[in-house]
Specification:
about 250 residues, alpha/beta, Rossmann fold, seven-stranded parallel β-sheet, 8 helices, globular
């Protein structure tokens, strides 16, 4: 069996009705995993699940949930176990950023929402899937962070703080749960053509300026992240733990 095979494994991917999360779910299914498509809106989740199932590889089901609601995340984990079996892979991809501007202008509620949705919700979900992983001595926890966690910003500073905290969250989980053969890692994307970056790639002049200075002369696509996610979830990454893998085409260099 290929080191990259995910056959017989169940994966929960939050924020997987579009963008990076969807690309990861599609690639997991292509490698044999059964995947749970989850985001806030049921119709969007169902559409992705139907598309994946039509391809005839791994099975996909839709279980909508809001990452800001602990009870909904618990229901997500419980319903996954009932329908597909316990999660072997958990990808914390969903995040939010309700504020753009200098950090001195952010309200307490906006800052708390960023920290709650981008850090605390990841902790909640990982704690919920861990018992079964520990019992079976197999699991992969993956947090989709950002290269924003490696630098400051005059416009998305609070978001970047949350993404830097995700790096440390993964390191701490790696230390605590590695002994149970549960690995925890981060993927740090650069600028990817998703809704988050729509303001840039819908502006031809701004995209041209980015591409001109970028080492690969192009913006990333959601599928560019999927290979790293497969690697970290599969036996190919069996001894990778507590790491932050940058996937940015060279932006940070």
């Amino acid at each position: 069996m290929s080191l990259f095979s995910l056959e017989g494994r169940t994966a929960i991917i939050t924020g997987s009705s579009r963008g990076i999360g969807r690309a990861i779910a599609e690639e997991y299914a292509a490698h044999g995993a059964n995947v749970v498509i989850s985001s806030r809106k049921a119709p969007a989740c169902e559409e992705v699940a139907e598309t994946i199932n039509a391809k005839g590889a791994g099975k996909a089901i839709a279980i909508p949930a809001s990452i800001s609601e602990k009870e909904e995340l618990q229901a997500l984990v419980s319903r996954t176990s009932e329908r597909l079996g316990p999660a072997d892979i958990c990808v914390c991809n969903a995040a939010s950023n309700p504020y753009y501007g200098p950090i001195g202008g952010i309200s307490d509620d906006q800052f708390r929402k960023i920290l709650d949705n981008n850090i605390l919700s990841n902790h909640w979900l990982m704690q919920m899937v861990l018992p079964d992983m520990i019992e079976r001595r197999r699991g992969a926890l993956i947090v989709v962070s950002s290269i924003g966690g490696l630098r400051g910003s005059p416009t998305i500073g609070a978001y970047n703080i949350s993404k830097a905290a995700d790096f440390q969250l993964a390191r701490n989980y790696a230390v605590e749960y590695g002994q149970h053969n549960v690995r925890t890692n981060c993927i740090a994307p650069g600028l990817i053509r998703t809704d988050f970056a729509r303001a840039l790639w819908e502006n031809p002049d701004a995209e041209k300026a980015f591409n001109t200075s970028h080492p690969m002369r192009r913006m990333g696509e959601p599928r560019d992240l999927a290979g790293a996610a497969v690697f970290l979830a599969s036996d190919a990454g069996a001894y990778v733990n507590g790491q932050m893998i940058v996937v940015d085409g060279g932006s940070t260099i």
